[in-house]
Design goal:
Blueprint lengths: L21 H27 L1 H17 L6 E3 L5 E5 L8 E5 L7 H14 L7 H66 L5
Antiparallel strand pairs: 1-2, 2-3
């Protein structure tokens, strides 16, 4: 016995079993809204307190120089500047670098957080994947920018003004451009592409 073909005049019943129940949809929507607000607020806050961010970058760079790299270093309390001995043990060789608005990662980090929040406006983008992409990009930007400042300090200590100029303008800029490209790939792979695509 064959079954008759479906009547095109009769609409098919909606597949209610395929949709998650209302409480789960509401919880997912609330989670998305909270993540979106947190990312946008975090990005805006980073822009607003970028000077405090620069103080933190100076302190972190000084800690790395003085700890793992064993180069005596300290920070100022009045400005986002880290000081270091160009010749360890020689008190007459102290030099300093200021973390200026052109050198900070604050604007990149704030931008990444805002972009992550905007991506969550679309339900096509997974909340965990966008959060993972934003977190990875922020960590990468902060790490590379710290490494860039350490590289500039080490080059200045070894080769003077020429080392500073070369690493600050050429090498440092190249590092940040490459890092931004990697962050874009992170967002594409982690935040935008669905699993299995």
């Amino acid at each position: 016995m064959t079954t008759p073909p479906p009547n095109p005049a009769v609409p098919a019943a909606p597949d209610l079993a395929a949709r998650p129940p209302w409480p789960r949809r509401a919880a997912a929507a609330l989670l998305r809204l909270l993540a979106l607000v947190a990312l946008l607020a975090g990005g805006a806050a980073t822009f607003l307190v970028e000077e405090r961010f620069r103080f933190a970058e100076a302190a972190w760079t000084a800690w790395v120089l003085g700890g793992p790299l064993e180069r005596p270093s300290r920070t100022l309390t009045t400005e986002p500047v880290f000081l270091y001995q160009q010749v360890p043990g020689d008190d007459g060789s102290w030099a300093g670098l200021a973390v200026t608005t052109a050198c900070t990662a604050a604007f990149y980090v704030g931008g990444v957080l805002v972009v992550g929040g905007l991506l969550l406006l679309s339900r096509r983008n997974s909340v965990p994947r966008v959060l993972a992409a934003a977190s990875a990009a922020v960590a990468l930007l902060a790490t590379v920018n710290t490494a860039r400042m350490i590289l500039i300090a080490e080059a200045q200590a070894r080769w003077g003004a020429q080392g500073f100029g070369w690493t600050h303008t050429v090498v440092g800029s190249f590092l940040m451009v490459v890092t931004l490209g990697v962050c874009a790939v992170l967002f594409a792979r982690l935040g935008l592409l669905r699993r299995g695509s």
